[in-house]
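Instructor's aside before we start: the two examples that follow are unrelated to each other. I chose them only because their records fit on one page, so don't look for a connection. First example below.
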Amino acid sequence: MSPHEYVHGYSDRENIRLMDQANTLTELLHSDTVYPPGSRVLEAGCGVGAQTVILTRNSPQAEFVAIDISPDSLQQAQKRVRAQARTNVTFEQADLFNLPFNAESFDHVFVCFVLEHLSQPAEALACLKKVLKPGGTLTAIEGDHGSTYFHPDSDEAQQAIQCLVDLQAEIGGDALIGRRLYPLMQKAGYREVTVSPRMVYVDASRPQLVEGFTRNTFTAMVKGVRNAALQSGRIDAVTWERGIAALERTSEADGTFCYTFFKGLGKK
């Protein structure tokens, strides 16, 4: 099993979903992610640059190095950053388990929605710690699909979500990793670890979140594993379609949706 398999795939639709997710959650996840002028920051697993744009905008005088294992993702990230006229970042293809940097060469490390896809997340965190300067910080952000609840409730929707959780586990990932962030960072040797829950609550009074998160981020993410879920035999087509319809139902005028992300901070 490759440590870099990505359950959501690399389609254009997935790229759009990642951007919707980043833009919708900017305030919730990144309002307190600011790096000092002159600091050198590694973004590990930048993907298509959804978070990179936000990071470089929030800390315009910091120097970023963004890495990813996928050359196609890096190409899209570079294009996206150029379109925003951000000049404080360089990109490099690299494996975070085999980083091409000297020890203690970064002031800070940022990793977001990456650990959930790795079979050895604690080892990845340990590798990242090696390139941090003494006293440097690592920021890690992950979700937890087990934190999902909504109204109206639906057994079929929960089954569809569980398909995604199971498929991710099958290739070595963990869609429930948010609840493990603190012990993982502790195991990797970080000091003064703190983890804060960041809950997304959505109802009709927050139309931007209805569209940006419930529909275009979470429901779109679940819909993306339809073929794999059906082919695996975990769920039948009728139950799947009912589950997706129920998730979409939560975005109507009387629906609500909740999900929790977890943001960890630790020092070397």
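Example two begins here.
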Amino acid sequence: MASRERRLSELAQLGEQFRRDGNSAKAEPLLREALAIAEADFSRDRLRVAAALNALGLVYKDLARFDDARALYARALDLLERGEAADDHDVATLYHNLGGIEHARRNYAQGEPFARRGVEIRRRAARRDDNSLAGDMVALAAILDGQRKFDEAERLYVEALGILEREPDANAGEIAVALNDLGALYAQRDEADRAEELLSRAATLKSQALGPRHPDVAVTLNNLALVCKRRGDLEHAASLYRAAVEIFEESLGADHPKSIACRRNFAHCASEVRECRA
């Protein structure tokens, strides 16, 4: 049993490292094996099984296998909520992740109750983790942003940044996500100067924290390109879109929804550049 426990731990750690590095395709078989071991050998340990379900769910979300991810999150949440002493942190995380699935699908109204529940649980938790609370606020704000509830979303982003920036070095990656999302909000409100400033900061922070070829960097480059395009700086926008497409295709594959959407953005922008040169 000790050898199986060690194998489970090794698989979980290596799979999570691949996922954090932006290589969820390599993480998937490792975390699928980890879940099989957890369910076969440690079925009475609800926390362990729920953690394995959640870890694989995160990978499936990255791979745009949204139905599979949602099913795993729901199973994990059911396991925890049937327990006598469910950990608030783990329960809030699963509500956060269920909201994230609906955000990825652009089902913002369906995702809002999950995201709000995660924030509520985290706010009242006896063992409160303010950084996790900030992450939940950012997730909820992104869902509100998708419904054009800009004022509440902006308040949540600003509050979250206030928490995260207490420890800027430790929270660089999370700060970058919040800056990206707030910048995207300002872009939707046609506040180009504020949007460009925040998105540029987010791109720099993400590159430093995650590496320049991480797909999260490409997300911000795509957003920044949109701002440049709206300003009429088509050459710069096209170069940003091109860089984002290369990162997405390299890390997620050419058929991933993010790759397809960004490639379409680049094609439209490149076409406008050619028209201006003609």
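Residues 178 and 184 are 10 Å apart (CA to CA).
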